[in-house]
Design brief:
Length: 817
């Protein structure tokens, strides 16, 4: 490394203590004696930001002046988690912070807990984006994360007295937020509506209204790299924030209408879109952040140039489209190039297609975003013209290649007919250089099924980059006990930046002393989580039970229903004596999930899980044998406590439906064994950790497709397995709804007549494998040997490796010198 990019210079405890005091005095106006934990948190965070500032400015300078192409990661979500401890780790200041805070009379954990988790994401998509920008900085690749600063997140989840999900605003930004730097001087104008006219032979967009996109910058420090990248999130402001004339007419609400309408764009992540107004707001949101980001990138890389040579733009930055949410950026860049910089279509198209790449995160056709051409035309009329131009040229290309009418209709970006639709995944595939899936199986199915026509037409565009997770947050910060043991076992902590070094643990799985140390770490993590759950959720958790966890977004294909039906079956078996008390393996089941506000079946499943938990946890017949807990508002903080304590992880989606998953990687790296199907990254995890160290059940993708083709009758599986029948009957007869048979009637009807994701078909093999799981768990030495092998063989699933694959296969760039 050069001197400019060297890791942070060590800071003494005394110096850092003085820096915190300085921030308390001169920034917050609080004396040390009166400072609360929250005051210390803000002061420490501001002090840490000062230590990052020089590296941040140097990284920006080197990015613009150097020859290394930058990465612009466009994502609707960045599920960052708390920032302070992560920044301290990457600076090498964890112990310094702890000692300084104690010197000021505060407990480090209390100060860390004062930080409010940013409400910038929902699930795996956003957490992947956060892992990736962490790895980009740690490897030293110049990058911007571009997204939205949501005022209220997606929502804060609560449960009412009936166990139903209730959505509350997430007021995360209402507290002191020392990490985001608002820069009004670098705001952008984003236009909407209006019409397109022909002026002097040129198409001219005349918008009806505009909003101001104000950047809020978050530093993204790399781990011991000396580099600090930028997460630039946009917040919407009105150009006419206050109508004084309306106010003077006593129309006080009307006076702030422009402000409210503008700020609505960045209030909520994924506004509910079952109404036309909701759909419009979602599209406004998507265009808002990509338009601001593209304009910003041009400003950054061509400073002070009124008419830069944008044919070099793809050499300055490449944009990665994280799913379809930012795909409107393709026609936006075309518009900017043609309308603002006077490039002809072919030149603009060449620049655009070399700038964008697309990551597809789904195999579900219904999850591939589609917009009404009418809505796009009304909100973004010039863009709809450009999209039609792209579609027409693509159709001509297909005709020239010999495609028949049926294939052309299947591949149109803009569908034919009276109500044309714009298929955003198709636009991304045609308008970018590469398309990647996020696990080997997913990428293959993407080529063979979801985007088959396109993979045949553009075979060189398609590739795979298996997802990964950052070991800094999800091992070193989340699991310090295991991290210390790994460092002891390997004799180095270099594994945090080279996770494949974990392979050195494999021989230690045969070392009884190391296995016992590993078992003690897991036990200590379980006790710690039991204390955390008691303090924050009021749960009484028994650490002498197996900790069995299923945490992920609530969706029918992820099959939380399969897990809860198996729990009900287990409960029934204990109650009716099918399983003797002596044979019962004590187990505590943890669920964590949010359901989209408009997703009725998912929300009903949450209600069922909560009420199964209520019944089981209050039944003395199963005390000490079975417990179910569903902590509300699952987030990064909860994950960092629960994942290290988990012994059995559930990855039970229907084969062929999960793109990858990253939760499965986090659990394996933290020493949990997995029960799962051959779906998503489960396939690669099982290959690497060993089939004998993974509990496999369920149909394969081919078997699922064959059953669909044959005709699936879920009721036949209900009748064939008494365990399943009893579980569903208990849901139906009101056991978990205070005797009300109607509460879960829609769920029961769906299971027995539709069950599209074949929960019932896989139930028997899932229930059967529990015996194998419990037999192994009885032998704690062998269980922990296998858990160690999961850790040792999961180094491939680092987000650092994922980024290296992107650099080689898609972005064709590298670290700054």
């Amino acid at each position: 490394m050069t001197e400019q990019t060297a890791p942070h210079t060590p800071v003494s405890v005394e110096q850092f203590t003085d820096e915190i005091k300085e921030q308390l005095t001169y920034t917050q106006g609080v004396t040390t004696d009166l400072a609360t934990d929250a005051d210390i948190y803000v002061a420490a965070s501001l002090a840490v930001r000062k230590h990052l500032m020089d590296s941040w400015m140097t990284t920006q300078r080197d990015m613009v002046q150097g020859s290394t192409k930058a990465v612009g990661y466009l994502s609707a979500e960045f599920l960052m988690g708390k920032q302070l401890r992560n920044a301290l780790l990457n600076l090498g200041m964890l112990e310094t912070f702890d000692d300084a805070v104690r010197a000021l009379g505060h407990e480090p954990n209390a100060v860390i807990d004062a930080e409010v988790e940013p409400g910038l994401g929902n699930g795996g998509l956003g957490r992947l984006a956060a892992c990736f920008i962490d790895s980009l900085a740690s490897i030293g690749v110049p990058a911007f994360g571009y997204g939205i600063q949501y005022k209220y997140g997606i929502f804060r989840q609560e449960f009412d007295e009936e166990g139903r999900q209730v959505e509350r605003p997430d007021y995360w930004i209402n507290n002191d937020e020392p990490w985001g730097h608002i820069d009004y001087n670098r705001s952008q104008t984003v236009n909407f509506g209006g019409s397109v006219e022909e002026v002097d032979g040129k198409r001219v967009w005349k918008p009806d209204w505009a909003v101001r996109a104000v950047p809020v910058d978050y530093m993204v420090p790399g781990y011991k790299s000396g580099r600090v990248n930028t997460l630039r999130l946009w917040t919407a402001r009105s150009f006419d924030e206050f109508d004084l004339a309306a106010f003077n007419r006593s129309d006080y609400m009307g006076a702030v209408v422009p402000q409210v309408e503008a700020e609505n764009i960045t209030k909520i992540l994924y506004p509910e879109d079952s109404t036309p107004q909701g759909k419009r707001l979602r599209l406004e949101q998507q265009y808002f952040f990509v338009a601001a980001s593209i304009a910003d990138a041009i400003r950054v890389f061509y400073p002070g140039e009124s008419k830069p040579d944008l044919t070099t733009f793809p050499d300055k930055i490449c944009f990665q489209l994280n799913d379809t949410h930012p795909v409107i950026g393709i026609p936006e860049l075309m518009r900017v190039l043609m309308d603002e910089y006077d490039y002809d279509w072919d030149t603009a198209w060449s620049i655009t297609t070399r700038t964008f790449n697309y990551t597809c995160h789904t195999l579900l056709p219904e999850a591939l975003e589609v917009w009404s051409a009418g809505l796009i035309g009304d909100l973004l009329p010039r863009h709809m013209e450009i999209i039609r131009g792209i579609n027409d040229r693509f159709v001509d290309e297909l005709k020239e290649s010999g495609s028949d009418d049926a294939q052309i209709d299947r591949m149109r970006i803009v569908t034919a007919g009276d109500n044309p639709q714009v298929r955003m995944a198709y636009l991304a595939t045609v308008g970018g250089s590469h398309v990647n899936g996020v696990a080997e199986l997913h990428s293959q199915l993407l080529k063979d099924m979801t985007l088959r026509d396109f993979s045949e037409h553009y075979p060189d565009k398609f590739t795979n980059v298996t997802n990964g997770v950052t070991p800094r947050r999800f091992m070193r910060l989340a699991n310090p006990r295991l991290s210390a043991l790994i460092t002891e076992g390997l004799g180095t902590d270099r594994w945090l930046s080279d996770l494949e070094l974990l392979q050195g643990l494999a021989p230690l799985a045969q070392d009884d002393e190391f296995v016992r140390k590993f078992a003690q770490v897991k036990r200590d993590n379980k006790v710690a989580f039991a204390n955390f759950a008691k303090e924050h959720y009021g749960f009484e958790v028994n650490p002498d039970t197996m900790f069995n966890t299923m945490v992920k977004r609530l969706h029918e294909y992820k099959r939380q229903s399969l897990k809860i039906l198996a729990v009900i079956s287990r409960y029934a078996a204990i109650k009716n004596g099918t399983v003797s008390a002596d044979d019962v393996l004590p187990r505590t089941i943890f669920f964590g999930a949010k359901a989209a506000p408009g997703y009725y079946m998912a929300k009903l499943t949450i209600q069922l899980i909560n009420n199964v938990a209520r019944v089981i946890n209050n039944d003395p017949d199963v005390q000490g044998k079975l417990a179910v807990h569903f902590p509300e508002n699952y987030n990064i903080r909860l994950a960092q406590h629960l994942i290290p304590a988990t012994e059995l992880d559930e990855q039970i989606s229907q084969a062929g439906k999960e793109a990858s998953g990253t939760g499965n990687m986090k659990f394996a790296l933290n020493g949990a064994l997995t029960v799962g199907t051959l779906d998503g990254a489960n396939v690669e995890i099982r290959e690497r950790v060993g089939a004998e160290n993974f509990f496999l059940f369920g149909m394969t993708v081919d078997e699922v497709e064959a059953l669909y083709a044959k005709g699936y009758s879920p009721a036949a599986y209900y009748e064939a397995d008494p365990r399943l029948k009893q579980a569903i009957d208990m849901v139906s007869n009101g056991t978990f709804s205070n005797g009300d048979r109607n509460t879960y009637a829609p769920l029961v009807a769906d299971w027995l007549t539709k069950d599209y994701f074949m929960t019932l078909a896989d139930f028997s093999t899932y229930a059967d494998i529990q015996s194998e799981i419990e037999d192994l768990y009885q032998d704690q030495m062998e269980w922990n040997r296998r858990a160690i092998l999961n850790v040792a063989n999961s180094g491939y699933f680092s987000s650092d490796r994922s980024i290296e694959d992107y650099l080689e296969r898609i972005w064709h760039t590298g670290p700054l010198a």
